[in-house]
Amino acid sequence: MPLPNIYNYTIEEFINQIFTSNNELTTKKEIANNSVFKYISGYFQKAKIRYFLLEKEYISIDYITDYSAYYSKCFKNYGNKCVRIHLFSFQAYNTEDFKKELTKNLLAENNAKDSSEFWKKNYLGFIVIRPIPKFFIGYSILNHYDALNIPIKAGGEIRHYWGVKRYKITVLGKSVTLDSLAFMSQDSNVGACATIAIWTMLQRAVENYFVCLKSPYEITKDAGLTKYDGNRIFPNSGLDPVSICTAITKNNLATEIRYFANVKVGSRNEYLKGYINAYSKISLPIILGIELEKGGATFRHAVAVCGHTEIEINEKVKSNIEIPKYLLPSVIAGSEKKLIVKSRNINKVYAHDDQIGPFSKFTFRDKDKITTYWNTNEGYKKCRVIALIVTVFEKIRIPFEEIESRCINLDKFFKRYFEDAFQSQIEWDIKLQYGSDFKEEIKKSAYEGYTDEEKQATQLQILSKPLPKYLWIISLFVNKIKVFDFIFDASGLRKTNVFENLYGYSKTVKRLLESCLTKISTKNNKEEIEFTEELINEPIELFINKIINL
User: Fold this and answer.
1) Using one digit for the tens of pLDDT, what is the confidence trace for 300-331?
2) At 230, phi and psi to the nearest 5?
């Protein structure tokens, strides 16, 4: 018996099948003009979709939960089952050939190499069609562009999809895995844009056993019984920042909210880049509150950032690190210079926007504005960020600002004593990450000046050392090469010394730092010693001992 419900992809056929799957509750014209449909149609073109498969009477846990709580109480019977549409890029134009190949790979053993290659190469994911009017696109998982091997147009850019996870998808009984992040379009009956942004974040956070995955209705209900202005929550027209944080904290998570009105005009994008870069390693999508302009009026919206691109800034630097003859200048050389951080290289972010689609691109264009995918014929072209909400695990107690201040102090210290030695700009990177991930990274890192035996001894020393589960890492780069990691306990007590240790990748710079601090500690200059200890926040002798033991 041949496989049923397989269609050759065309825009017209796809609209027809969505119209039928939606129980004809949304007109074909409304489907074609839907902003999310337009976006995913463009995605299909880039992904070279050829066929799609309809899985009827599909139970979507998110929709069935919302149906039970809300839609089942309507007079009209909207139905409790959805249709799931699986998407394929198999390049044969003969439908019968595709059916034969699909049948063979559906029946193949899960560990069959040829079958795995078929799914990896041809399966793009799925979208769910809900049986409700207007808001017909439900729970959906689609491959991101890196998984599709679609190159970036601009040379030198690198994508980082850090907010994704591995999904196990069953296609007609066949188990398939896909690295992505689930998407859902807005349904303002049970949850507006902020609700979907929270739902998106929870899709990633649920990887931790203590976090619950909830439907949009349940998330909106968690936000409160009424809105901040006293109006009813359902139907929902949006959540304010406090309500967003309330819904998140009810899932055993903590929030850090920052308002951009307090940020100096002209540096807001740099501020945003710093936060995205700093928190990306823990892989929880960051919620942005944005403001779009239209005809003199403003429209507020929320999205969930789950990735970014960065481009290397080409600068002429000298390749050698040499120990200078003079290490103790009488003035702070370059202390007034701006802190150079790697986050400045970020030029785009990818966000799940429930009005547009998954991995929607936001491009930094100037110091305060961002260009969005919103349709320019509707008047939306640029937006500005008005707030961001970072979700963290409750044990993470040290915020970004405290570590950034430590980085500023370290920058002053190194610029005072080493800038002439390095003969280049000192560059910093600040990231929050898991202790286990940090140990994995040091195995893959490049080392300068170490023999193989010294490298192994250095690695084993930190690998065997107990570390907190969550770490703040300040990385120092010289000539684009990482030379030190300063390690801080992210779960420590605020306003205390949370510095744990430092880890070196360059023998030359290690000796340089040791030599400098030794000279400071032996120099009969109390003011110099106090200045240095204030910046490194630790007695010089103890700091020297840590360097010697690297």
Assistant:
1) 889 999 999 998 655 443 444 444 433 333 33
2) 90, -10
Rounded distance between C-alpha atoms, residue 129 and residue 148, angstroms = 23
Tokens of 385: 């960020």
Chain segment 364-398, per-residue pLDDT in tens: 987 788 888 776 555 557 888 999 999 999 999 99
In angstroms, what CA-CA distances link 498 with 236, 436, 493? 43, 18, 7
Token code pair at residue 280: 């990306």
Question: In the structure, what pLDDT confidence band is assigned to residue 360 with cuts at 50, 70 and 90?
Answer: very high
State the SS3 of 55-97.
Answer: EEEECCHHHHHHHHHCHHHCCCCCCCCEEEEEEECCCCCCHHH
What does the alpha-carbon distance between residue 254 and residue 256 come to, in Å, rounded to a whole number?
7
Strands 141-142 and 123-129: antiparallel
- Assign 432 to helix, strand or coil: strand
Residue 84 pairs in a beta bridge with 55, 128
Closest CA to 8 of 83, 90, 106: 90
pTM of the model: 0.89
- Cβ pair 426, 415 in contact under 8 A: yes
